[in-house]
Amino acid sequence: EVFRMPSNLTRREFFKDMGLLSMGAATVAALGPIEAFGESWSDKAGIAPRAPWVRTVDRPTVEIDWDQIYRFDERETVRRGWSKYLDEETFARVSADFRNNAAERNRQGLPGYSTRDIALYRASGIGATQSFLGPTNVATPEEINVARWEGTPEENSEMIRAALRAFGAATVGFVELDENTEKLIYNIDPDGKELVFTDETVAEETETTRTIPREARYVITWTIQMSQEGMTRSPTPLGAATTSMSYAVNRAVQSRLQGFLRGIGYYGLGEAETNALGISPAFGVLAGLGTAYVLLVNGILLGGVPG
Fold first, then answer.
1. Model confidence band, residue 129 (pLDDT cutoffs 50, 70, 90)
2. Would the CA dihedral through 73, 214, 290, 98 be positive or negative?
3. Which end of the chain has fewer surrounding CB within 10 Å, N or C?
4. Are strands 56-57 and 194-198 parallel, antiparallel or unpaired?
5. Exposure class string for 3-26: b at 16+ Cβ within 10 A, else e
6. Residue 227 above 90 pLDDT?
7. Contact at 8 Å (CB) between 256 and 299?
8. Are the beta carbons of 20 and 306 closer than 8 angstroms?
């Protein structure tokens, strides 16, 4: 069973609330080609087909005790802070093994650890940079004296899904923030900056904080497809390169989406670095995708959410 967000939003509500960006990367099933861009920007192919026995529901069928959930410091996750969960001796040994095992296995002639395998992995993460506020080199509608884009929630959802698919994403979904789902946004980003919700209408970033206007109510979530063949090579450098490349692709996808939103008259607030801003697996599940990347957007209303 998959969770599907309700799509009975009015056009007025949609444009009032759009404000947050999206997160996520995950392996997904192969999808059909994106439909040609036309006047409707329709992209039905962006919704992964479900097996006939899968039901679409408005709420997760597993009960969530939101009273037990709180905003989390990303620096305390195992990904960033795993040294805190090991004793000093074990951490030093594991760290040394991690640094040296690829070279040692290369010298032993083990398959999957050739010099070119290691080089492919080390180059696989090279890609576009990402930022909270996004690029500013795309002109806004106001700057070129044209009208801001406005459409129905369904049109907006199809448009964003089509744009993301063109930029390199696989599946796309949306989650609306409320007092519960706000808890899935980190309170501290991995670089130590505090994420603060505000009633102001302008998102800002300082040396210590990133402010999120409460008008940014929608989280756009998407997935990046990984190579199934590459993943079978795990845990060699080739397997690691498969994951690393998907994150590099996502950095470009996020920046492109932020630029697109700016170009139609809105903004998107994204990950300042990998796995920042919020808990992407949770948002992916709530959007019916599994685990995904996320971005917060302002003002634009989203409907027609894939389940």
1. confident
2. negative
3. N
4. unpaired
5. bbbebebebeebbbbbbbbbbbbb
6. no
7. no
8. no
Report in angstroms the alpha-carbon separations of 136 from 37, 132, 248, 258, 262. 25, 12, 20, 9, 8
Amino acid at 154: E
How confident is the model over 18-64, as pLDDT tens digits? 445 545 433 333 333 334 444 556 665 555 666 777 777 777 778 88
Written in H, E and C, the secondary structure of the chain is CEECCCCCCCHHHHHHHCEEEEEECCCCCCCCCCCCCCCCCCCHHHCCCCCCCCCEECCCCCCCCHHHCCCCEHHHCHHHHHHHHCCHHHHHHHHHHHHHHHHHHHHCCCCCCCHHHHHHHHHHCCCCCCCCCCCCCCCCCCCCCCCCCCCCHHHHHHHHHHHHHHHCCCCEEEEECCCCHHHHECCECCCCCEEEEECCCCCEECCCEEEEECCCCEEEEECCCCCHHHHCCCCCHHHHHHHHHHHHHHHHHHHHHHHHHHHHCCCEECCCCCCCCECHHHHHHHCCCCCCEEEEEECCCCCCCCC
Q: Are 230 and 224 in contact (CB under 8 A)?
A: no
Are the C-beta atoms of residues 276 and 24 closer than 8 Å to each other? Answer: no
Distances in Å between the Cα of 263 and the Cα atoms of 16, 17, 113, 144 are: 18, 18, 45, 10
**Gyration radius from the chain CA atoms:** 20
C-alpha–C-alpha distance, residues 34 and 11, integer Å: 26
Range from 7-21, 90-104, 250-264, 287-301 that averages highest in pLDDT: 250-264
Contact partners, residue 303, CB within 8 Å, separation at least 6: 7, 8, 9, 14, 152, 153, 154, 156, 157
Distance of CA 237 to the CA centre of its chain: 24
Longest dimension (CA), the chain: 65
